[in-house]
Amino acid sequence: MSSQNNKENREPALLVLEDGTCFEGVAAGASGVAVGEAVFNTSMSGYQEILTDPSYAGQLVTLTMPHIGNYGVNTADMESATIQAAGLIVRSISETPSNYRSEMSLPDWLADNEIVAITEIDTRALTRHLRDKGVMMAVIAHGATAEDAERWQKHLADQPDYGSGEFVGKVAHNEPLSVVVHPEVSGEEELGEARVELVPHDPDAGDERPHVVVIDYGVKFSILRNLDAQGLRLTLVPGSTSMDEIRELKPDGIMLSNGPGDPARLDDYLATVKGVVETYPTFGICLGHQLLARALGAETFKLPFGHRGPNQPVKNMSTGKIAMTSQNHGYAVRSETLPADLEVTHINLNDETVEGFRHKSLPVLSVQYHPEAGPGPHDAVDFFDDFAKMVREASA
Ligand SMILES: NC(=O)CC[C@H](N)C(=O)O
């Protein structure tokens, strides 16, 4: 057994769940304590994209793939400027990455970003527990052992619940920004992901490209990369932007981004969402999809353990085709509450929940899953073509 997997040589760490279930492990990343909602993701790779996805704010991410970190981390594969998850739970963490793109090991990157992690956890048992009982709050405590479990369970009881958290305000950008995407190319070949740069918005700058205003609730860079690749000019604005302010930006289309937390806590954003849907071609992804549904009168609810992974089967109700999709959500739209002018277009084949809808008379696309993947399969990437077509028609 290599030294990195030798429990005796390392600082102990403890994972305690809200219901008192505890797992002893080994400390990794920054030293300290991390509190959050324990969730699991079934991706075999893509840990860097997952950890930097702002939708994971406030959550301790368990990765079911047992060996994590083997290809290191790099500056190109970021989904936002930094790590957004509250902590990381793994079976085995690699300290010696091997990949030509690697710039740093995962444990060093976690430490540099002050993210507390725990390794040597039976992530299979933990995942089965969360699947049976539902996701719940948890704490990772470095230096603690099973004898300390009760004390940490009490500590956890005093922490605010994930569902009451205001995460969008913490992860989204709070001023208008323009998006510049720099593809990393060598000769003809595009290497890795394009670098995304956000610069202060200049209201007088503009170009020939159709203009999409992205309402940022915690946007993933891959959504911006995909929109940019469609030849669209992008301006990010905060969720609190009013309809009048959006009109001044003269958009040809609107993107409602992904983001963290319970959509039912974001009613302050709904007036703008309703206004843009009724005025411009609109595309909602994940939290954006949930807010779009709520703005038009539907309700959302919390799933028992959510959908997080790269292999969630989604059926297109009009073609019967099944796509393997990338997902990361804990809430969903309640289908029986959809108003008459919205029609379900996609369902999840695992639990038949709503994965997409269309508006019967307005140019609206809305999906619960992630067509941009990052990480995951690209089966659903055509949505960006469909949206760009709607935007171009509006700008013509
Ligand atoms: N990825 C997302 O946008 C997640 C949306 C929402 N926070 C949920 O968990 O359902």
TrEMBL record:
Q: Which residues form the Carbamoyl-phosphate synthase small subunit N-terminal domain?
A: 11-141
Specify the enzyme's EC class, one word. Answer: ligase
Q: Name any one GO molecular function.
A: glutaminase activity
Which pathway does the database say it acts in?
Answer: Amino-acid biosynthesis; L-arginine biosynthesis; carbamoyl phosphate from bicarbonate: step 1/1; Pyrimidine metabolism; UMP biosynthesis via de novo pathway; (S)-dihydroorotate from bicarbonate: step 1/3
Active-site residue numbers: 286 (nucleophile), 370, 372
Q: What is its EC number?
A: 6.3.5.5
Region annotation (CPSase) maps to: 1-210
Binding residue positions for L-glutamine:
55, 259, 261, 287, 290, 328, 330-331
On whether Amino-acid biosynthesis is a keyword of this UniProt record, the answer is yes
Instruction: Tell me which InterPro entries the record gives.
Output: Anth_synth/Amidotransfase, CarbamoylP_synth_ssu, CarbamoylP_synth_ssu_N, CarbP_synth_ssu_N_sf, Class_I_gatase-like, CPSase_GATase1, GATASE
Query: GO terms for biological process?
Result: 'de novo' pyrimidine nucleobase biosynthetic process; 'de novo' UMP biosynthetic process; glutamine metabolic process; L-arginine biosynthetic process
Q: Which UniProt keywords apply?
A: Amino-acid biosynthesis, Arginine biosynthesis, ATP-binding, Glutamine amidotransferase, Ligase, Nucleotide-binding, Pyrimidine biosynthesis
Which reaction equation describes what this protein catalyses?
Answer: hydrogencarbonate + L-glutamine + 2 ATP + H2O = carbamoyl phosphate + L-glutamate + 2 ADP + phosphate + 2 H(+); L-glutamine + H2O = L-glutamate + NH4(+)
Gene3D superfamilies in the record, alphabetically?
A: 3.40.50.880, Carbamoyl-phosphate synthase small subunit, N-terminal domain
Q: Which family does it belong to?
A: Belongs to the CarA family.
According to its UniProt entry, the function of this protein is described as:
Small subunit of the glutamine-dependent carbamoyl phosphate synthetase (CPSase). CPSase catalyzes the formation of carbamoyl phosphate from the ammonia moiety of glutamine, carbonate, and phosphate donated by ATP, constituting the first step of 2 biosynthetic pathways, one leading to arginine and/or urea and the other to pyrimidine nucleotides. The small subunit (glutamine amidotransferase) binds and cleaves glutamine to supply the large subunit with the substrate ammonia.
The protein's assembly and partners: Composed of two chains; the small (or glutamine) chain promotes the hydrolysis of glutamine to ammonia, which is used by the large (or ammonia) chain to synthesize carbamoyl phosphate. Tetramer of heterodimers (alpha,beta)4.
Protein name, entry field: Carbamoyl phosphate synthase small chain
The organism is Persicimonas caeni
Q: What is the lineage of its organism?
A: Bacteria, Deltaproteobacteria, Bradymonadales, Bradymonadaceae, Persicimonas
- The gene it comes from is carA
